Amino acid sequence: MSEYTIEALREDTARLIAELRAEEEAKKHAYRKYLVNGYEMLLNPSESVDCLVEPLLPRAGVAALVGSSDSGKSTLLRGLAMAVASQAKSYLGFEIKARYNRAIYVATEDDESAISSLMHRQLEELYVPKEAFEGLDFIFDTENLIDNLDKNLEERPADLVVVDAFADLYTGPMNENNRVRSFLNLFSQLAHKHNTLFIFLHHTGKRTEVLLPSKHNAIGSQGFEAKMRVMMELRPDPVRHDIRHLCVVKGNYLSEEYKHDSFELRFTSALNFEATGNRIPFAMLKERDTEKESAEAERLELIKSLREEGKSVREIAEILDISKSTIHRIISA
Q1: Partners of 160 in beta bridges
Q2: How far apart are the first and last CA of the chain?
Q3: Are 30 and 23 within 8 A, CB to CB?
Q4: Confidence class of residue 170 from pLDDT cuts 50, 70 and 90?
Q5: Is pLDDT at 27 greater than 90 in this prediction?
Q6: Where in 82-221 does DSSP place strands (E)?
Q7: In sequence order, what DSSP letters do the residues of 223-292 get, joined into one string?
Q8: Which one of 2, 27, 178, 210 is at 20 to 30 Å from 321 when CA atoms are compared?
Q9: Exposed (0-12), middle (13-18) or buried (19+): which is 16, by Cβ within 10 Å?
């Protein structure tokens, strides 16, 4: 074997050893790409949460707007998407901090003709040229939605994606936490991958209007609200038919001042929302439960009648199959 060949063999061996060591070192530290170091985070502190709509809605993640039928949920979210796309500076009194001035609206309940008609009606009052909405896209065909959104956001980044409505896309049991969370996680991953905010429209349960605004009023499992960074309830005013109340019922990074009083909105004849500037305590937004009040009144009259007949509290409790403490509470009310 020649001297040249021996030297070349040594070089090849040294190079191979170096490559193997580099590969082992890379494997050893491969985990680092999945972690963000706490010390490095503290070296570059963020003074506040980055928002798309200051201070209510974060830049990225998943959020929800819930409410009863005909409360105006779709109109409110469509208005937000229009504001983002048209480079509006604010919406309902809150500052918009869009980067791309682009929004995507996934519509499962209305078709192209219906939404076109609604938008024409809204524009008559907004005085915004049609050209301003080149950054607003609609999706009516939800087949392969995740893949299509991923490709779309890769090609044309968007600030906002509205999903109207959650119940039309999720077809599993509403009360199964794990399945609901797994479904929402697909959208959450997209949101963080593309630094986009996803807002889901969802419905509240029957008779929740007699309860306080709450994250628990949404139909389905606790898994839905648990996944949301922000959750809002849109509720009609108990008396004034043109008034709605936007209630922040969950906000991971919002101070308590936003979570106990509603933001009062006026629903205009042109199907737009405008802020009145008023804040209303949640306790004032409950409708009267007339059925319950009527039942309580009938039971009170029956208790009074039995008492007049000389029945004791114990005997009345046995006759009506209720506790003695309940009878004392009704009598003393």
Answers
A1: 103, 197
A2: 109
A3: no
A4: very high
A5: no
A6: 90-91, 94-96, 103-107, 136-139, 160-164, 197-203
A7: HHHHH-SEEEEEEE-SS-TTEEEEEEEEETT--GGGSSEEEEEEE-TTS-EEEEEEEEEGGGSPPP-HHH
A8: 210
A9: exposed
